[in-house]
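Holo prediction. Input below; ligand is zinc ion.
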Amino acid sequence: MASKKKDYYELLGVKRGATDDEIRKAYRKLARKNHPDLNPGDKDAEERFKSVQEAYDVLNDAKKRQVYDTHGFYADNMGPGGPGGPGGSGFQPPPGFDFRGFDFDDLFAEQQRQQGAGGRPPGGSAPGGEQDSGTFKDFFSSFFGGRQQESRAERGSDLEYALNIDFWQSIKGTQVRLTINRHEICDTCAGSGSGSGSSVCPNCTGSGKVTQMAGAMRFNVPCTRCQGKGRLTNACARCHGEGRTVRPEQVEVRIPAGAADGSRLRVAGKGNAGQGGSPAGDLYITIRVEKHALFAREGDNIDVKVPVTVWEAVLGAKIEVPTIDGRAILKVPQGTQSGQKFRLREKGIFNSRKNTRGDQIVEVEIQSPPANDERTRELFRELAKLHAEDDPRRDLWTKV
Ligand SMILES: [Zn+2]
Ligand SMILES: [Zn+2]
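Structure of the complex:
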């Protein structure tokens, strides 16, 4: 990795005026040939693979290619505005990696902290050189689909479903049969994905590249599933090499009593099947509870608005109010005002975690009576005369 100015055209074995298509074909052939997965332990092949990736990364991008053609080299800090130089290290960037604003010393320092003492000092010799650096190899293995990716592919992904239930189902609990579409191990190939067909690679959907994250950075790496070809040969005709098929499945779900709007249930093992016989993910169900015309849930409590007559409010009364258990008696005390709230203990929602019940909160609304008859109006006129001195708005003026 001595030369800074590599001839990318030469690396790919194409002419300077090669078309995009010719470049792509040459790249694919060479990437396949030198792919680390196909040449385990072969450092030269790995170097060639990186160089080919680097060349392709530049020549495949019209803007970068133009910069390269103009200056004879390309570095990511060279905008179309002018060259910034390729830097002195001779370090070969991983393909598709966006270097802008990224300090490699930070990365190595970070890795050293993780490894503890005894690592290679950061900012020493150029990484990726002849050094037998475990740190750097680990770093690269994640780019080229090493352990990290394999362990991530082990377990199937989780599934998310939203489930609408009505108020009473949420209060009393219910059993629901859901039809979910989940990945199952393919019957035809028993999950191996192999067969006699050829199909678009499901891992990269044919692009030959997959996006990886490193902290907040995203970068593309060649798809290890298809070695960057975008297609799979010897693929199972049924699952197109995926090893899994999507199939609707009925899942019986028990919604516990008191399930609140927005709560989530986990059904273990009912997510997507894993690859290569590894365990399935989980199914998560988010509960949506429809609003009830009368009962409004507030935590473990139930709020209800109940109308009362003027004489019930004035004289006091025992009235029947609806609760989620049926009818209950509420004692309205003498002299009750509109908007006053009363508590019916333990008429709310059962909380299984605390093993308690919430309350029902009754807000009374005083309703004026229909006064269509002369007798009623007469009685109210009499009341008005009796209370001529009472002004309910008196206090308002002191507050203005
Ligand atoms: Zn199959
Ligand atoms: Zn692929």
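The pocket of zinc ion (ligand 1) is lined by residues 186, 188-189, 193, 236, 238-239, 243 (CB under 6 Å). That is the main takeaway for now.
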